[in-house]
Amino acid sequence: MTNPAFYPIGTPGQAWNAADKAEWLARQKRQRSYASDVLAAVDGLRSRFDVAEYGRLEYASGSFPLFAIKSRDWNDTLPTMLVTGGVHGYETSGVHGALRFVDRHASDYVGRANLLIAPCVSPWAYEHILRWNPDAIDPNRSFRENSPAQESAALMRLVAPLRDRIAMHIDLHETTDTDESEFRPALAARDGKPFEPGVIPDGFYLVGDTENPQPEFQRAIIAAVEQVTHIAPADAKGEIIGSPVVAPGIINYPLEQLGLCPSITNAPYKTTTEVYPDSPRATPEQCNAAQVAAVRAAIDFVLEDR
């Protein structure tokens, strides 16, 4: 007996073939503008920061330049802080939180730290409000050698010269209701696996590195963010999205094993933020502010710990 279909593309129990992926791609619609929302904001920062094009994505639907924002007063004797957003393009506050941090707070660190910010790693996915790129690949499982994702490979090339010199990397994400209604079912269908429903946590949480968890660093970020928005509680199993809660609002993943973005450097301090924009207790403004609070707290902790 075959499993009933839980996603409109593919055959239950069989991984997608090229035709299935093409069908998935044909269903996707452009819903917002990378140029208007992101590139225009980046252009507005050029008078105060250095902006560099670190790559360009070439897809059938268009070409997308990738930009990084850097401290103008770069000093190799200072610690370097890496901020990434929009690895998953649909996670809006990751992109706009990164840009807001640069606009409102990056100047606070002049002479104290070098800042490198890649605010929108996946611009095609940003425009289509998707987790994957057009090849049905999740960039945030693709940060590894010979990456199949253009987005991941470009960011890795940008960071490679600094891999051993970055002190902190914070990667800005969201967990949304569509994770459960669309993206996890699509993932299961793509891989020919059964879909097992989960629970979306209501609130902000962090994902640290199982191999180097840095609990005090993670707790400092939670303390700052809880002044802005609520922190996700553990579920009845003491977990958040299937992982044990090691402190309020904090879980750990094996970052390198999973090919996650914070694994691209040897920074001693790494974390992934997860904002919940669909909560009735949160607004888009709070989501952006939570990302900014997390970035500031992360940088401040590292500077104070030196």
What does this structure look like?
One of its GO terms (molecular function) is metallocarboxypeptidase activity. Pfam families: AstE_AspA_cat (PF24827). The chain is an alpha/beta fold. The chain has one domain: Aminopeptidase, CATH 3.40.630.10. Helices cover 33% and strands 19% of the residues. Strands 1-2-4-3-5-10-6-9 form an eight-stranded mixed beta sheet, sandwiched between helices. Strands 7-8 form a two-stranded antiparallel ribbon. The longest helix is centred in the C-terminal third of the chain and has 22 residues, at 284-305. The chain is globular. The protein starts with 17 loop residues before the first helix and ends with a helix. The mean pLDDT is 96.
Integer average pLDDT? 96
Number of strands: 10
What is the total domain count?
A: 1
Distance between the termini: 61 Å
Tertiary shape:
globular
CATH T-level topology = Aminopeptidase
| Helix content bin | 25-40%
- The unreliable regions are none
Beta strand %: 15-25%
Class from helix and strand fractions: alpha/beta
**CATH fourth-tier homologous superfamily:** Zn peptidases
Q: Write out the strand line-up for the largest beta sheet, numbering strands in chain order.
A: 1-2-4-3-5-10-6-9
The succession of helices and strands, N to C, reads HHEEEHEHHEHEHEEEHEH
Radius of gyration computed on alpha carbons? 19 Å
CATH class: Alpha Beta
Give the number of helices.
9
Keywords: Hydrolase, Metal-binding, Zinc
Organism: Luteimonas gilva
InterPro entries: AstE_AspA_cat, Peptidase_M14
Protein name: Peptidase
